[in-house]
Structures are given as structure tokens and as C-alpha cells.
Amino acid sequence: MPIVETIVVELADRSYEVQVGVGVLAEVGPAAAEVAPAGRAVIITDSNVRPLYAEPVSRSLVSAGLRVEVLDFPAGEEHKDLATYGDVINRLLGLSPPIDRATLIVALGGGVVGDLAGFVAATALRGLEFIIVPTTLLADVDASVGGKTAVDAPAGKNLIGAFHQPRAVVIDAAVLKTLPPAELINGLAECVKHAVIRDRSLLDFIERQAPALLSAEAEMLAKLIARNVAIKAAVVAGDEREAGERAHLNFGHTLGHAIEAAGGYGRVRHGQAVALGMVAACRIAAGRGLITADEERRVREVLSALSLPVRFADLPDLPAEACEPGRLREIMAHDKKARGGVVRFVLPVGLGRAAIFDDVTGQEVLSAIEALSG
Amino acid sequence: MPIVETIVVELADRSYEVQVGVGVLAEVGPAAAEVAPAGRAVIITDSNVRPLYAEPVSRSLVSAGLRVEVLDFPAGEEHKDLATYGDVINRLLGLSPPIDRATLIVALGGGVVGDLAGFVAATALRGLEFIIVPTTLLADVDASVGGKTAVDAPAGKNLIGAFHQPRAVVIDAAVLKTLPPAELINGLAECVKHAVIRDRSLLDFIERQAPALLSAEAEMLAKLIARNVAIKAAVVAGDEREAGERAHLNFGHTLGHAIEAAGGYGRVRHGQAVALGMVAACRIAAGRGLITADEERRVREVLSALSLPVRFADLPDLPAEACEPGRLREIMAHDKKARGGVVRFVLPVGLGRAAIFDDVTGQEVLSAIEALSG
């Protein structure tokens, strides 16, 4: 099968390629062999993905001449914690013969796998090379580029981790057909985010192709993924350590994270929370005249067309705490990206551009949250 | 009190200063304030060091305008593990108000504290700035420069960690007077190592000043520390990620680590094991004509003058397994620095220079170990 597109993520000391295609999962071997000089790879995956894809990936790695071992851990966001990390890294370090610094880690799975396996790779023997083979749309367009690895802590999500760049990413759009529709929709929220902050023509594409995307047409998804990876790669390349414009990727996430935290992690999907966060941010932006009322409506409509929520009422199972303005504001003030208690908002400036605002008032935030309740 | 010397560790993207002096512990505040823009510092220390030095360090930080909190964990090598790391990082992340990315970590203590607190700093919120205030000679001359952080795993020492450079190191030679003599001797082994691989005149200094050093004369120790920090800084600056000549710092460590592992960690001191490793490496070097018999004897004599062992019999409590040649060779083959099972030895080439050898034969190693038994 042909590679549809290759995107280069340009980083100061180590650039890498993201391959996006249809049917490329079974061809990960050559990419891995290039970065595994010692000829040994350990696949880290979860209990959901292992029965689906560990075998074709292993086979491809073996064909490329690698010795392959597979470690898995129980699927689920609740296992993205230090206990599971400790269990996985100790099993990795206990392999016989022992791994060495030339051993390659292959993170095979969704965002939880990428984050946890990436953190294992970042810290085993003080850092092993790793490649990512994502299996969800959210991981394809978000977690696979940026070098963020992490596990959750009792005090909050992703609070323990490291920046650790992969050597390669291989994305197969064909695997998304096995993804539950709700998971596909989860990833589409991040695609809308990229469109709003960076690329108005991507918004046109998503609007036009919404039905094809929702029915997981592989070629269309591959195109979508390639464009989103390119956007994220460009943003990250300019700001590897998150000092400046990379913060634009937090569009929709300030309130989104607060909704997730207030609702209890796992009870609200990330993409749904981010969709509500984007609607609120657009409300604030429209109130400031940064976007027109038409543009604000357009964002809401594309989210709706993708079956994403635009009001709290669109999520009938949402716990009442997740809609409570006072609680949400308190959580936002404690966000790890807040500086000295100042909540920073990323707002669209027209569609396709964004900027960071430190001066969003409590009243603006409250009004935007109330609009979600309307 | 005057700063005796400042050594700059030159790194690609972030250099930092090591201040070595007498009585400087209580003056850490200004150095910390410079790198803690948010005005908040968290001291991480252990239960031995806290009652001795947490107060003067806190006072100095507070005087410099910082808000200060102290976290400690139980002293002892056996607590340098993932469980203690998890406990400390979760207490750090649970502080109220929550820490943010501008919070400074101050690692106050010996090697275990520096390694564990450094790993906490490397991974909390994906990386916080930290400074090191070491309180043992070993930490002064070894752990304080190089950016290595780690905890131990069931499979071996320092197998879980990250490279994370401090923003500053403040070394007070006066605190070493509270150090048990055995701990002081432990650190002197690394000083001999630096002398043999890089600086013959340092060997002269150590020979001449051995009695003053052993009685913990602060000014003499400050001079010793400054020279050793400068050597290590030069080596690390040339090779931050351990690809090349930094490996010279493993002189004495290949066999030394094996003796520690075979004897059971905590039963043999690191410095003692490294002393035996250096004697063995010098034996191999002398056998190859890389150093003269006189030079070999000189290294043994300086070690003896510092109360360090030069034969297994100098350590009456050493478990029999720690002297067993077959067991030691097996452990060396599994060392994380071994490549494809090839054991690499750092050997002196004359005194004051070293090189890496991949071709040391099993017979040479056996003979050298047997010489330790003689």
C-alpha cells in the first residue's frame, strides 16, 4: 500500500518523520529497523489493542530483522498512573537478556499508550529511542506530535512526565475503522481546533467531508490526519518546549480541562469537553469582536455536524458539577499552565488565527459558561 | 564567608555555575532567587539532613524573598526507589496552592537526595528548574555535575531516571565535618578516579594532603572539590549525553558496580567498590604496558593512604559472593553500559589519561580479579 504523505517534524537537534497512510501498520518494520541499530524492539501496548494489532506489527518488525517482545497493560484512562508506569518499566527492565540503551520502544495504541509508553521510554536507562504507532484519531492528530509524555497524578492529569521526542511516527488510517464512533468523534474535536487556530481551509474540508469522516472512510481520514499533523508539527517545531505559540494548541482546553476535572475524569470525553471549551472561547472572542457572530455560529455548526456537543444539554450524562461556573473557574485558576493564578485564554482572531489573552475577565468567562447552559 | 571558587559547567543550551566555598550553605538564597522567578522554592531532603541543614537553607531562601516549603523522605539507599519517588512527587504536586512550572526545587542532601529529587524535578509538570546543595563529598564531586537523575529498580541501580541539568550547584565544604569518616572516604575514591583519568597533578595533591583531607579540613576539601568539579565539568561539557569521552568517568566502575551488585547493595560502599575496580583496571593496564608497575603501585598506595581498600581482604565484611570471579563477570556482561554483551573497560594510559577498550579478554579480567584476592 502506498504511503499517502510524509510530514517532517523539524526540531532543533532531532527531526523525525510522520508517515500517514492506509494499510501502513503492517509496514512499520523498515522505519523501526532504521532507528534500532541493536536489532531489538519492545512493543508496549494495552489489553484492547494487543489482540487487534500486536501481531501484524510484530510480524513486520520481525521481517525487518528485529527481535520483538510485547508488554501490555490494562486498557483504560484509569491505568495511566504511576502504579501502571512502575509495573511496565520494571517488566521492561526485567526482560532477559536485559535491554540496553539501543533497545527501541514501540508505543502501539491510543493516547494513554503513547503517553505512558513514551514516559517509560523517556526514563528507562535515562532514555530509550521510541516510535509511535497510534491507533486512535486523537492520538494520530494530537499525541503523536509534540514529544509530551505523561501519567496522571492524584492532583491532576498529566502532571508527571517528560518531553521526549519519538524517532518516527507511523499512522495507519485504516485501523480507525475498528474504533468506536465515539472515539472517532473525540479526535475530530482536535481537528476542528487546528482548523480554527491555524487553517480556515481545513475548516471548509471538515464541513464538506463530515459524513465521510464520521463513517471512517480511510482515504479521507488519511488526508485529514496528514493536514492536522502538518499543522501541529509546524506549531511544535517553532516552540518545542512550550514557551510561546505552542500554547495556541490549548484553544478550547482551558475550560475543557476544567469540565473534565469537575465532571470526574473518564465521565466526560476529552473531545467533548474541548468542543464545549471551544464554543465558550468563541463566545468570548465574539464578545470582544475578534470573530464575527457568523464565524462563531460556523464553529458551533461544524461541531454539531461532527456529533460534538455545543451546549451542556447535548451531554445528558454530564454530572451537574461539570456545569457549575464557580467550580469551573476555581479549577481553571489551578491549571498547570496558569501563571501566578492568571488564567490564560487562547482566542480565535478571525478563523484560522489565534492569540493568547491574559486579560479575560471573570465576567466574560461566566457569561461564556452560562451561554453553554442556554 | 568568601566563595572560594566558581566553576562554569558549559552546556549547549544551558550552562550553570557551581559555587564551591566554606560556609556558603547559609548563602544559597541569592543563587536560588535568580532562577526562581515565581518566588517559590520547595526543598527536597532526607530525614538525616533535614534536622542538620534544612533550617539554615530555608532561612537563606526566605531572606532572598522566596516562599519555602520542605519535603523529606526516609534516609537510606534503600529508599531510592519508585515508591519513594511516587510519594515525594505526589506530595509535591499536592501542595496548596499547587506548584507551577516556575517553582524551583532545591535538592539538599547526599547522592540519594540529588538523584531522587532531581528525578522529581525532571518529571513534575514535565520538568521544573532545580538547584543542588550537596552535603556529602561523593555528591560534591560526582553527582552534582552531569545532570544524571535516577532511582533504582529491582533489576538494578539507577535504571530509571532522566538527564536533567540543575540551574546552579552550591557546595559548602564546611558541612563535611558532620559527615561520618567512612562517607568522606567514599567520596575520596572518586577524586582519585578523576586524578588518574585526567590530572596527574591532582594525584600529587591528594598524596600530599591525604591527612588533612581525612580530617575534613574545610579549606583543603574546598580546594579538592573545586578541582574535581572542574574536571568533571570539562568531561561532561564535551559529552552531555554520554556518547563518548564521558565514559572515562566509568574508570573503576565496571568491576566496581559488579562488586556492589554481587555483594548486595548497601553492604559495600560505592567508593570502596570503585577503589577495588580501579586497582583491577590498573592491573589490566599494567599488564598491557599502558602504565608502568611504579604507576600501578602509586595508585594502590594513594588509595591505601586514604583508607580505601586495594584487596578484597581489606574489607573483612565483604560477602563471599562479591569476590567470586564468575559471578562478577556475569554481572559485568549485563551492565547497562555493556553493548551487545561486550564489556567495555576504561584503562589509564599513563597517569592522567585514559581510553576505552572493547577488547579486554576474559582472562585479563580474571587475572585482575584474582590479584585482588592475593
What do you see in this structure?
- The structure is a homodimer.
- Chain A is an alpha/beta fold and about 375 residues long.
- Chain A has 2 domains: about 5-180, Rossmann fold (3-Layer(aba) Sandwich), CATH 3.40.50.1970; about 195-215 and about 250-374, Dehydroquinate synthase-like, alpha domain, CATH 1.20.1090.
- Helices cover about 45% and strands about 15% of the residues of chain A.
- Chain A is built from 13 helices and 11 strands.
- The first copy, chain A, has helices spanning about 30-35, 50-65, 80-95, 110-125, 135-145, 180-200, 200-215, 220-235, 255-265, 270-285, 295-305, 325-335, 360-374; strands spanning about 5-10, 15-20, 40-45, 65-75, 105-110, 130-135, 150-155, 155-165, 170, 345-350, 355.
- In chain A, strands 1-2-9-6-5-3-4 form a 7-stranded mixed β-sheet, sandwiched between helices. The first copy, chain A, has a two-stranded antiparallel ribbon with strand order 7-8. The first copy, chain A, has a two-stranded antiparallel ribbon with strand order 10-11.
- In chain A, a hairpin with a 5-residue loop joins β10 and β11 (about 355).
- In chain A, α1 (about 30-35) packs across α2 (about 50-65) and α6 (about 180-200) packs across α8.
- Chain A is globular, with a radius of gyration of 20 Å.
- The N and C termini of chain A lie far apart (about 50 Å).
- The model of chain A has no long low-confidence stretch (mean pLDDT about 95).
- The interface of A and B includes residues 162 and 340 of A.
